[in-house]
Design goal:
By secondary structure, the protein is mostly helical. Helices cover 72% and strands 0% of the residues. The protein has helices at residues 4-10, 12-18, 30-37, 41-47, 51-76, 82-100, 102-109, 116-143, 151-168, 178-188. Helix 6 (82-100) packs antiparallel against helix 8.
């Protein structure tokens, strides 16, 4: 597999083309993905024999990309206190959802039920993602740097904030990043009581 398949499976923008917010999973059609990707429909079918095969590949690509971005953000703050690490993760997640993959945020903001073929992989993807945040929060609580009565509830609220921000937070309308920083600041308040 080379050439066009490599472009379909490794170009980060392809994930956005697969999961265009206007269509979502239920409205996903090979014709639309082929057109947005400038790939012949027959070529797409050659590498992905079904809609579910395409979605599975895109979900795995998305998961790998997001985890890599979050891992890099965490690595950059590895020697910093837990609040700075959490702030870095929140900021990077906002960038992922508003700059790199704005189409994807909408999918997870208003999640329709995933078909059985993808249910377990979506759960696994979420668990892998959430584990990164959870480890920082647990470490921060253990060290006394973070303080929240129920970390699970705070993390659910955080992910709700981040996913919904992808709907209304537009980088072009916030060139200096003030709104993005306000979202990060308010999100941090879930984990630090005044």
């Amino acid at each position: 597999m080379g050439g066009r398949h490599e472009a379909v499976s490794t170009d980060p923008m392809e994930v956005g083309r697969v999961f265009d917010a206007a269509f979502g999973y239920q409205g996903l059609r090979f014709e639309d993905v082929a057109e947005r990707s400038d790939i012949a429909k027959a070529t797409l079918y050659h590498y992905f024999p079904s809609k579910d095969a395409l979605v599975s590949a895109a979900l795995e690509k998305l998961t790998a990309d997001v985890l890599a971005h979050l891992g890099n953000a965490l690595d950059a703050t590895a020697d910093r206190p837990a609040p700075e690490q959490l702030r870095s993760l929140i900021s990077e997640q906002l960038r992922v959802l508003t700059v790199l993959y704005p189409e994807v945020g909408t999918l997870f903001s208003f999640p329709a039920p995933w078909p059985d073929e993808h249910g377990e992989s979506v759960k696994t993807m979420r668990r892998r993602h959430d584990r990164i945040f959870r480890e920082v929060v647990d470490r921060g609580i253990a060290s006394g740097e973070l303080d929240c009565p129920d970390p699970s509830v705070a993390l659910h609220c955080l992910h709700g904030i981040l996913n919904h921000a992808s709907i209304w937070l537009r980088p072009a309308a916030d060139p200096e990043g003030r709104t993005r920083e306000a979202v990060v600041d308010e999100s941090m308040r879930l984990f630090i009581r005044a």
